[in-house]
Amino acid sequence: MKKKVVIYREVPEKVVNTLMKNFEVSYFKNLHTNNYDEFIKELQHADGLLGASMKMDKELLDHAPQLKVISNISVGYDNLDLEELKNRGIIATNTPGVLNDTTADTIFGLLLATARRMTELDHYVKSGNWNGSKNEDLFGVDVHHKKLGIIGMGSIGQAIAKRAHFGFDMEILYYNRSRKKEAEEAFSATYCSLDELLTQSDFVCLMIPHTPETEKMIGERDFQLMKNSAIFINGSRGKNVDERALIKALQQKWILRAGLDVFEHEPVEKDNPLLTMPNVVTLPHIGSATKETREKMAMLAAENLSKALDGETPPNIIR
Ligand SMILES: NC(=O)C1=CN([C@@H]2O[C@H](COP(=O)(O)OP(=O)(O)OC[C@H]3O[C@@H](n4cnc5c(N)ncnc54)[C@H](OP(=O)(O)O)[C@@H]3O)[C@@H](O)[C@H]2O)C=CC1
Ligand SMILES: O=CC(=O)O
Known about the structure:
Blueprint: E1 3-7, H1 13-22, E2 23-27, H2 36-43, E3 48-51, H3 58-61, E4 69-72, H4 82-87, E5 91-93, H5 100-115, H6 118-126, E6 147-151, H7 155-168, E7 171-175, H8 181-187, E8 190-191, H9 194-200, E9 203-206, H10 220-225, E10 231-234, H11 243-251, E11 257-260, E12 280-282, H12 291-309
The structure holds NADPH dihydro-nicotinamide-adenine-dinucleotide phosphate and the ligand O=CC(=O)O.
């Protein structure tokens, strides 16, 4: 009998077809409240689960008594309760590497858009307010030759540093759990303490995973340490930042602007003050969201899942 795989996120047809060759597949392309009960029913017989960002806690896992692998189509795995998975003997996998350049492009694009006020000025032109003025009230700030502080010099942090160093002649400071000699050599990055990074950087870019240790890692004190002219970019997870403190920092002008791909709650609440601030550029968590990269991620996730169900060691097992 074929093993059963449940897919709970839209993936390219190619991925569904590949999995269907070896497994019985239940595909929930659009998982909503109206088909959630059916999804839960399918979990009862699932050996493998493929998708992204759904909270996998005890309550959900109780519906999946024969589950052997959860394959995340993402690098981040803060949706998984690893301790609970370990207790149940369930393997977890993710998709690092294949999204580094795409995510770095998005986050650097967000940095540029925030520094040069691109979304604000786009709205200004399209709403017919441009009367020919090119006065100071339309000016942004330079990115090139400025100081970029990267918190989390991992794979994506380094891809951002590469763009900043070679493309924009920026000076790179970084703070990380361990020293990254390869980044120091390749991009002349300087390792420093978090406080040094916050006080010295013109741009502060957060690229660490969300863990109990990094929950609200950037808070009121950190924003107060930043320059009043600093621009804060979060491309990691919203929960790494104390969002109330960020709002206060922008309102009190402790910092100049923020560019955010991620929020404490996603989708972000409609009445979140960040959404009405002209000095904030927002994106709907689309760091890796290009057609090409999402296809690579889904293919890699399918490979991880297939290997785990075939009794082999998947290439991206989370330990
Ligand atoms: N916006 C989006 O769409 C996307 C967001 N992401 C987010 O970006 C994160 C990073 O991805 P990626 O670069 O691939 O991951 P990596 O694991 O390659 O890099 C993470 C880096 O963070 C460092 N780090 C971890 N914990 C701490 C800590 N407590 N203090 C200081 N440094 C720490 C790690 O240090 P060390 O090497 O010493 O362990 C590592 O260098 C993901 O976990 C995910 O949350 C990822 C993809 C897309
Ligand atoms: O947020 C995206 C990821 O891959 O992690």
